[in-house]
Amino acid sequence: MKRMLCSLGLALCAGSASPAAASAAVGDQLLFNRGFEAAADATNTAPAGWTAGTWSTAGPTPPTVTFTWASDAHTGNRSARVEVSGYTDGDSKWVPDPVKVSGGAYYTFSDWYKSNASTAVSVYYETDTNADGVTEGHWANLFSGIPAASEWTQYRTGFTMPAGAIRAQFVHLIARNGWLQTDDYSLTEEGRSLAPIILAMHDWGTGRLKRQQKTSGIRAQPRGHSTAAARQASARHSG
Ligand SMILES: [Ca+2]
Protein backbone atom coordinates (compact mmCIF):
# COMPACT_ATOMS: atom_id res chain seq x y z
CA MET A 1 0.00 0.00 0.00
CA LYS A 2 2.77 2.39 0.90
CA ARG A 3 4.49 1.75 -2.39
CA MET A 4 1.29 2.45 -4.28
CA LEU A 5 0.69 5.65 -2.39
CA CYS A 6 4.17 6.92 -3.11
CA SER A 7 3.83 6.09 -6.80
CA LEU A 8 0.92 8.50 -6.86
CA GLY A 9 3.28 11.25 -5.81
CA LEU A 10 1.59 12.12 -2.56
CA ALA A 11 3.64 14.61 -0.61
CA LEU A 12 3.23 12.67 2.58
CA CYS A 13 5.46 9.89 1.31
CA ALA A 14 8.57 12.02 1.46
CA GLY A 15 8.20 12.75 5.12
CA SER A 16 6.35 9.71 6.39
CA ALA A 17 7.72 8.72 9.73
CA SER A 18 8.14 5.14 10.82
CA PRO A 19 5.05 3.71 12.43
CA ALA A 20 4.94 3.41 16.17
CA ALA A 21 6.92 0.53 17.53
CA ALA A 22 4.81 -2.59 17.86
CA SER A 23 5.33 -6.29 18.19
CA ALA A 24 4.48 -6.80 14.52
CA ALA A 25 5.63 -4.84 11.51
CA VAL A 26 3.29 -2.87 9.29
CA GLY A 27 1.60 -5.25 6.88
CA ASP A 28 2.23 -8.39 8.90
CA GLN A 29 -0.67 -10.74 9.46
CA LEU A 30 -1.65 -10.39 13.11
CA LEU A 31 -4.12 -13.27 13.51
CA PHE A 32 -3.06 -16.77 14.45
CA ASN A 33 -4.65 -19.65 12.52
CA ARG A 34 -6.65 -17.20 10.40
CA GLY A 35 -7.74 -19.98 8.04
CA PHE A 36 -8.88 -22.36 10.81
CA GLU A 37 -6.67 -25.18 9.55
CA ALA A 38 -4.84 -25.86 12.84
CA ALA A 39 -6.42 -27.76 15.73
CA ALA A 40 -6.32 -26.46 19.28
CA ASP A 41 -5.02 -29.77 20.65
CA ALA A 42 -4.65 -33.46 19.96
CA THR A 43 -8.36 -34.12 20.31
CA ASN A 44 -8.75 -32.31 16.96
CA THR A 45 -12.16 -30.98 17.93
CA ALA A 46 -11.70 -27.20 17.84
CA PRO A 47 -9.58 -24.66 15.98
CA ALA A 48 -6.50 -23.16 17.63
CA GLY A 49 -6.58 -19.47 18.42
CA TRP A 50 -10.35 -19.05 18.30
CA THR A 51 -13.11 -19.15 20.92
CA ALA A 52 -16.86 -19.52 20.52
CA GLY A 53 -18.47 -16.36 21.88
CA THR A 54 -22.12 -15.55 22.51
CA TRP A 55 -24.09 -13.29 24.79
CA SER A 56 -27.74 -12.66 25.46
CA THR A 57 -29.86 -11.02 28.09
CA ALA A 58 -32.83 -13.20 27.25
CA GLY A 59 -34.66 -14.46 30.30
CA PRO A 60 -36.39 -17.81 30.34
CA THR A 61 -35.54 -18.99 26.82
CA PRO A 62 -32.11 -18.01 25.54
CA PRO A 63 -31.37 -18.50 21.84
CA THR A 64 -29.94 -21.79 20.64
CA VAL A 65 -26.44 -21.26 19.26
CA THR A 66 -24.37 -23.95 17.54
CA PHE A 67 -20.68 -23.43 16.82
CA THR A 68 -19.04 -25.72 14.28
CA TRP A 69 -15.44 -26.15 13.15
CA ALA A 70 -16.73 -26.79 9.67
CA SER A 71 -15.15 -29.19 7.19
CA ASP A 72 -15.82 -27.14 4.08
CA ALA A 73 -13.77 -24.07 3.44
CA HIS A 74 -12.96 -21.05 1.31
CA THR A 75 -9.40 -22.39 1.19
CA GLY A 76 -7.93 -25.45 2.84
CA ASN A 77 -10.20 -27.90 4.62
CA ARG A 78 -11.65 -25.98 7.53
CA SER A 79 -13.70 -22.90 8.37
CA ALA A 80 -15.82 -21.68 11.29
CA ARG A 81 -19.60 -21.68 11.40
CA VAL A 82 -22.16 -20.36 13.86
CA GLU A 83 -25.90 -20.88 13.67
CA VAL A 84 -28.57 -19.16 15.76
CA SER A 85 -32.22 -20.09 16.28
CA GLY A 86 -34.80 -18.77 18.69
CA TYR A 87 -33.06 -15.40 18.61
CA THR A 88 -34.05 -12.86 21.22
CA ASP A 89 -31.11 -10.48 21.61
CA GLY A 90 -27.32 -10.41 21.84
CA ASP A 91 -24.93 -11.81 19.25
CA SER A 92 -22.76 -14.83 18.48
CA LYS A 93 -19.37 -15.11 16.81
CA TRP A 94 -16.05 -16.92 16.60
CA VAL A 95 -13.61 -14.70 18.53
CA PRO A 96 -9.90 -14.66 17.68
CA ASP A 97 -7.25 -14.45 20.36
CA PRO A 98 -6.46 -10.77 21.12
CA VAL A 99 -3.67 -9.09 19.19
CA LYS A 100 -1.44 -6.25 20.31
CA VAL A 101 -2.34 -2.93 18.71
CA SER A 102 -1.07 0.65 18.69
CA GLY A 103 -3.33 3.59 19.44
CA GLY A 104 -3.64 5.88 16.44
CA ALA A 105 -2.65 3.21 13.91
CA TYR A 106 -4.99 2.16 11.14
CA TYR A 107 -5.96 -1.52 10.85
CA THR A 108 -7.38 -3.28 7.83
CA PHE A 109 -9.67 -6.24 8.52
CA SER A 110 -11.14 -8.71 6.06
CA ASP A 111 -12.56 -12.19 5.91
CA TRP A 112 -14.37 -14.52 3.52
CA TYR A 113 -17.88 -15.47 4.53
CA LYS A 114 -21.12 -17.17 3.58
CA SER A 115 -24.39 -16.56 5.39
CA ASN A 116 -28.12 -16.75 5.04
CA ALA A 117 -28.72 -13.60 7.10
CA SER A 118 -27.44 -10.08 7.53
CA THR A 119 -24.34 -9.94 9.76
CA ALA A 120 -22.00 -7.35 11.28
CA VAL A 121 -18.36 -6.67 12.09
CA SER A 122 -17.34 -5.12 15.39
CA VAL A 123 -14.10 -4.58 17.25
CA TYR A 124 -13.43 -5.02 20.96
CA TYR A 125 -10.39 -3.12 22.16
CA GLU A 126 -8.76 -2.54 25.52
CA THR A 127 -7.17 0.72 26.52
CA ASP A 128 -4.60 1.52 29.18
CA THR A 129 -4.40 5.25 28.74
CA ASN A 130 -2.23 5.97 31.77
CA ALA A 131 -0.16 2.78 31.48
CA ASP A 132 -0.98 1.66 35.01
CA GLY A 133 -1.80 -1.84 33.85
CA VAL A 134 -5.51 -1.44 34.52
CA THR A 135 -7.33 -1.82 31.23
CA GLU A 136 -10.80 -0.84 30.10
CA GLY A 137 -12.75 -2.66 27.40
CA HIS A 138 -14.69 -0.95 24.61
CA TRP A 139 -16.84 -2.19 21.74
CA ALA A 140 -17.24 -0.35 18.44
CA ASN A 141 -19.44 -1.28 15.50
CA LEU A 142 -17.54 -1.19 12.24
CA PHE A 143 -20.45 -2.11 10.01
CA SER A 144 -23.87 -3.66 10.40
CA GLY A 145 -26.01 -4.96 7.57
CA ILE A 146 -23.40 -7.06 5.78
CA PRO A 147 -25.63 -8.83 3.25
CA ALA A 148 -26.26 -12.56 3.14
CA ALA A 149 -24.13 -14.43 0.60
CA SER A 150 -24.69 -17.94 -0.73
CA GLU A 151 -21.13 -18.16 -2.11
CA TRP A 152 -17.86 -17.28 -0.40
CA THR A 153 -17.65 -13.48 -0.40
CA GLN A 154 -14.94 -11.18 0.93
CA TYR A 155 -15.78 -8.45 3.39
CA ARG A 156 -13.27 -5.67 4.10
CA THR A 157 -13.23 -2.76 6.48
CA GLY A 158 -10.80 -0.73 8.54
CA PHE A 159 -10.46 1.07 11.82
CA THR A 160 -8.15 3.64 13.35
CA MET A 161 -7.32 2.32 16.79
CA PRO A 162 -8.21 4.91 19.45
CA ALA A 163 -5.54 6.46 21.64
CA GLY A 164 -4.37 4.21 24.43
CA ALA A 165 -5.52 0.97 22.77
CA ILE A 166 -3.22 -1.94 23.52
CA ARG A 167 -5.15 -5.08 22.49
CA ALA A 168 -8.01 -5.75 20.10
CA GLN A 169 -10.28 -8.43 18.70
CA PHE A 170 -12.14 -7.93 15.43
CA VAL A 171 -15.21 -10.15 15.12
CA HIS A 172 -17.71 -10.99 12.38
CA LEU A 173 -20.95 -11.62 14.25
CA ILE A 174 -24.56 -12.65 13.73
CA ALA A 175 -27.29 -11.00 15.79
CA ARG A 176 -30.43 -12.69 14.47
CA ASN A 177 -31.62 -16.10 13.40
CA GLY A 178 -29.50 -17.70 10.70
CA TRP A 179 -26.00 -18.99 10.07
CA LEU A 180 -22.64 -17.41 9.30
CA GLN A 181 -19.54 -19.24 8.09
CA THR A 182 -16.13 -17.56 7.86
CA ASP A 183 -12.61 -18.37 6.69
CA ASP A 184 -9.35 -16.70 5.68
CA TYR A 185 -9.42 -13.71 7.97
CA SER A 186 -6.84 -10.95 7.53
CA LEU A 187 -5.86 -8.30 10.04
CA THR A 188 -2.94 -5.98 9.32
CA GLU A 189 -1.63 -2.72 10.68
CA GLU A 190 -1.22 -0.11 7.98
CA GLY A 191 0.75 2.28 10.14
CA ARG A 192 0.08 5.54 11.85
CA SER A 193 1.12 8.41 9.61
CA LEU A 194 -0.57 7.08 6.47
CA ALA A 195 -3.82 6.25 8.17
CA PRO A 196 -5.92 9.18 6.90
CA ILE A 197 -4.90 8.66 3.28
CA ILE A 198 -5.35 4.90 3.41
CA LEU A 199 -8.76 5.50 4.88
CA ALA A 200 -9.72 7.89 2.09
CA MET A 201 -8.51 5.52 -0.62
CA HIS A 202 -10.27 2.61 1.02
CA ASP A 203 -13.58 4.44 1.11
CA TRP A 204 -13.15 5.77 -2.41
CA GLY A 205 -12.29 2.42 -3.89
CA THR A 206 -14.72 0.12 -2.23
CA GLY A 207 -17.76 0.16 -4.45
CA ARG A 208 -19.21 -2.82 -2.68
CA LEU A 209 -19.19 -0.94 0.57
CA LYS A 210 -21.10 1.92 -1.02
CA ARG A 211 -23.80 -0.43 -2.20
CA GLN A 212 -24.11 -1.71 1.33
CA GLN A 213 -24.39 1.83 2.61
CA LYS A 214 -27.48 2.36 0.50
CA THR A 215 -29.32 -0.44 2.20
CA SER A 216 -28.03 -0.29 5.75
CA GLY A 217 -26.82 2.19 8.28
CA ILE A 218 -24.80 1.95 11.44
CA ARG A 219 -26.96 0.67 14.25
CA ALA A 220 -26.92 1.60 17.84
CA GLN A 221 -24.66 -0.71 19.78
CA PRO A 222 -25.77 -2.77 22.73
CA ARG A 223 -24.97 -1.36 26.08
CA GLY A 224 -21.33 -0.98 26.97
CA HIS A 225 -20.27 -0.03 23.49
CA SER A 226 -18.18 3.06 22.97
CA THR A 227 -20.20 5.83 21.42
CA ALA A 228 -17.09 7.78 20.43
CA ALA A 229 -15.68 4.83 18.53
CA ALA A 230 -19.05 4.12 17.01
CA ARG A 231 -19.17 7.69 15.75
CA GLN A 232 -15.74 7.23 14.26
CA ALA A 233 -16.88 4.09 12.48
CA SER A 234 -20.06 5.76 11.36
CA ALA A 235 -18.14 8.69 9.92
CA ARG A 236 -15.90 6.28 8.04
CA HIS A 237 -18.77 4.55 6.29
CA SER A 238 -20.76 7.63 5.47
CA GLY A 239 -17.87 9.70 4.16
CA1 LIG B 1 -9.64 -22.62 5.85
In short:
The chain is an alpha+beta fold and 239 residues long. It contains 5 helices and 11 strands; from the N terminus they run H-H-E-E-E-E-E-E-E-E-E-E-E-H-H-H.
Describe this structure in words.
By secondary structure, the protein is an alpha+beta fold. The protein has one domain (45-56, 63-238): Jelly Rolls (Sandwich), CATH 2.60.120. Helix content is 18%, strand content 39%. It contains five helices and eleven strands. A five-stranded antiparallel sheet has the order 2-3-11-6-9. A hairpin with an 8-residue loop joins β2 (64-70) and β3 (79-85). It is globular, with a radius of gyration of 18 Å. The model is unreliable at 1-22 and 217-239 (pLDDT under 50). Bound molecules: calcium ion. Residues 35-37, 73, 75-76, 78-79, 183 line the site of calcium ion. Calcium ion binds next to loops.
Number of H/I helices: 5
The biggest sheet, with number of strands, parallel, antiparallel or mixed sense and barrel status, is: 5 strands, antiparallel
**What is the terminal separation in angstroms?**
21 Å
Kindly report the CATH topology: Jelly Rolls
Query: Any ligands, ions or cofactors bound here, and which?
Result: calcium ion
CATH superfamily: Galactose-binding domain-like
State the helicity in percent bands: 10-25%
Mean pLDDT: 81
**Count of folded domains:** 1
Q: List the uncertain runs.
A: 1-22, 217-239
- The second-level CATH architecture is Sandwich
Query: Count of DSSP E strands?
Result: 11
- Specify the structural class: alpha+beta
Strand content: 35-45%
N-to-C order of helices and strands: HHEEEEEEEEEEEHHH
- Basic shape: globular
Give the radius of gyration. Answer: 18 Å
